[in-house]
Design brief:
heterodimer; A: alpha+beta; Yope Regulator, Chain: A; six-stranded antiparallel sheet; 3 helices; B: mainly alpha; Helix Hairpins; 2 domains; 88% helix
């Protein structure tokens, strides 16, 4: 089972492995539950957040807020996001409060490579998602 | 009410802190207690089941031996009649009535135990399903709670970070600009490389005295000399 502390140090090491072409830095965010902030190289503007619970590892990237969406296109965009959800590999759209997010959930029995792969895919999906949804945004 | 329904109700009611609204109801503690109770019930039902199954087997054995006994006495009675011993036959018949009564009682008991076994098995199956369902809902409560807490930590961090100031479009523009810069740098690098490679070739051609070499100056001089001479 993945332990966030162990995961944090393993990820930090892996993220700086110059041998790989996918690099990132890891910061621990203290709080009632610990959360890791992953800054993927060249995509630092859109951090990925990782938290673990009893059964799953959640990787979340914040996309935009309600207020960034063109008011008359909210319904159309929500519909498009729901419709596209199933086609997006590993990531899904969701909302947390007034924030639209894209996230992936992994089993706690996942290994480091699974988590790294998830981050890699999510980092690509989040940029592409904002790109294709730009028309809906102010 | 199911947890998913509670979630939906909270969301439709405009609750932002949907995790809190569920945790407020002591969802986790209540669910854990309910699961414990249900597990206790299953344990008891399983013990009961073992006991009742043993009773049913005993009754079944009794039914079997009594049936055989009745059959045996029927044969005895027939033999007594064959021998013309009416009085003996009557005694045997009386014994058979007694045995038959006992057999009826045991048969009813066996049927009742069997029905009890079916009921207990059904109950265990049902409770097991209920527990699985409650555990699924408990996971939902815990996940909601954990996401809620994680989100709070993230939002606090987000609010203090610089990324808070950027809209999604601005972030995208920056990322794309950086990508463009990188592409440009790569392209420039390629250009430089090919330029260098070109220069290299030129110098080699020159060295070999092929193509438009440095002879330009000599040509001019030669032309000037020819003019002078002419």
């Amino acid at each position: 089972m993945l332990n966030l502390k162990t995961l944090a140090s393993e990820l930090a090491e892996r993220g700086q492995d110059a041998e790989k072409d996918f690099l990132f830095t890891v910061n621990a965010i203290p709080g009632e539950v610990e959360v890791l902030q992953i800054l993927v190289e060249d995509r630092e503007e859109l951090p990925i957040f990782i938290s673990t619970s009893d059964d799953q590892v959640l990787c979340i990237a914040y996309l935009f807020k309600n207020e960034e969406v063109k008011a008359d296109m909210v319904h159309e965009m929500n519909n498009a996001m729901l419709s596209a959800n199933i086609s997006i590999p590993l990531s899904s759209f969701a909302k947390i409060g007034d924030q639209y997010v894209i996230y992936g959930a992994l089993s706690v029995s996942s290994n480091l490579d699974d988590v790294v792969h998830e981050i890699d895919v999510l980092a690509s999906n989040m940029v592409e998602a904002i790109e294709v949804m730009s028309d809906f945004l102010k | 009410m199911s947890i998913l329904r509670k979630l939906f109700t909270a969301i439709r009611g405009g609750a932002r802190e949907m995790g809190e609204s569920i945790a407020d109801q002591n969802g986790v503690r209540i669910f854990e207690q309910e699961i414990k109770d249900a597990e206790g019930k299953i344990e008891k039902a399983k013990r009961d089941l073992t006991a009742v199954m043993a009773q049913e087997m005993q009754a079944a054995r009794k039914v079997e031996s009594l049936t055989a006994d009745v059959q045996k006495h029927e044969n005895f009675a027939a033999q007594a009649l064959d021998k013309g011993d009416e009085a003996l036959a009557m005694d045997i018949a009386n014994k058979m009535v007694e045995l038959q009564g006992e057999l009826d009682i045991q048969t009813k008991a066996q049927e009742s135990f069997a029905a009890h076994v079916t009921r207990l098995k059904g109950m265990i199956k049902q409770s097991t399903k209920t527990i699985a369902d409650m555990q699924r809902q408990l996971v939902m409560v815990k996940t909601t709670e954990s996401v809620q807490k994680a989100t709070t930590a993230i939002t606090d961090n987000y609010a203090s970070g610089s990324s808070k100031l950027l809209t999604a479009k601005e972030s995208l523009d920056r990322i794309k600009q950086r990508q463009q810069d990188l592409d440009d740098r790569l392209a420039a690098g390629d250009q430089l490389k090919s330029d260098l490679a070109g220069n290299d070739l030129e110098s080699r051609l020159q060295a070999a005295g092929i193509g438009s070499t440095n002879s330009g100056a000599q040509d001019i001089l030669a032309k000037l000399k020819a003019k002078k001479a002419g």
